[in-house]
Amino acid sequence: MGATDQVRQTGVFSTVRRSVRMTAGQQRVWESHWPELGHTQEDLPPGVVDLADWFGREAPTVLEIGSGMGDATAQLAVAAPEVNHLAAEVYPAGLGQLMLWVEKYDLDNVRLLQGDALAFLRDHVTPGALAGVRIYFPDPWPKKRHHKRRLVTPPFVALVASRLQPGGTLHLATDWADYADRMLAACAAEPSLRNSYDGWAPRPAWRPVTKFESRAQAEGRDVRDLLFTKRTDW
Q: Comparing C-alpha atoms, which of 101, 105, 111, 94 is closest to residue 41?
């Protein structure tokens, strides 16, 4: 069974849809900017998405799965204007807030996807299309009976790896120790990836501190980063 078929059967979604009302400002930018910047996963036409057409340029594209309220995404986009930043999130208010940041900083290198990033990767991204995938503080599903809902599993990592170009990176961060261990095991088991470090990666100075990281620090939980690279000989 191939990686795509395995992921198709898991029933795991990249994020959980929430019903939260947008603010007036978020609603305004949704109405004015969404037609230009965003797509819903359900409304994408069948087949591969032309990322260069979506961004209006050819550039390395990094997918962030679960962009939350978008402040970290915006900071990363400001710091790396040469990179196309694709933010995937199901939370409309979060996407609306990200568009407020896009408007504030006049960013032209950010696009937004509302929906399940796993299905997007599986059905709409060609192998080798992405320069990187970032997953910062995914839902840990802390109760043991809910661990099966966690996003980062060996089949998911295999799917992500297949969509990375040679030399592309998978960057993960979490503050849940047992999930971090499972992430490390899942990534280490994928033969097309290599760990850029001996175990955990040092926290990169360029990764913005998110509200989840701040909360973890306040509650005494260690944050662990993982940085894996797609093998160039694969």
A: 111
State both tokens at 133: 């995938």
* Mean residue pLDDT across the chain: 92
Phi, psi of 165 (to 5 degrees): -75, 160
212 labeled part of a ligand binding site: yes
211 is in an annotated binding site: yes
pLDDT at 19 (0 to 100):
52
Structural tokens at position 91: 């939370």
Q: Is 36 annotated for ligand binding?
A: no
Kindly report the CATH number that applies to the domain delimited by 3-10+18-230. 3.40.50.150
The reply to whether 64 sits in an annotated binding site is: yes
H or E element that contains 141: none
Q: Which two tokens stand for residue 111?
A: 């696009």
Cβ pair 141, 68 in contact under 8 A = no
Binding site annotation covers 148?
no
Answer positive or negative: Cα dihedral of 55, 60, 62, 63.
Answer: positive
Place of tokens 């994408």: 44
State the average pLDDT over residues 147-167: 97
- Predicted pLDDT of residue 211: 84
Catalytic residues: 139
Taking the C-alpha atoms of residue 168 and residue 132, their distance in angstroms, rounded to an integer, is 5
The structural domains of the chain, with segments of one domain joined by +, span 3-10+18-230
Quick: pLDDT tens for 2-34. Answer: 444 444 444 444 454 445 689 999 999 999 999
Contact 72, 89 (CB under 8 A): no
Question: What's the whole-model pTM score?
Answer: 0.90
Phi, psi torsion values for 200, nearest 5 degrees:
-75, 145
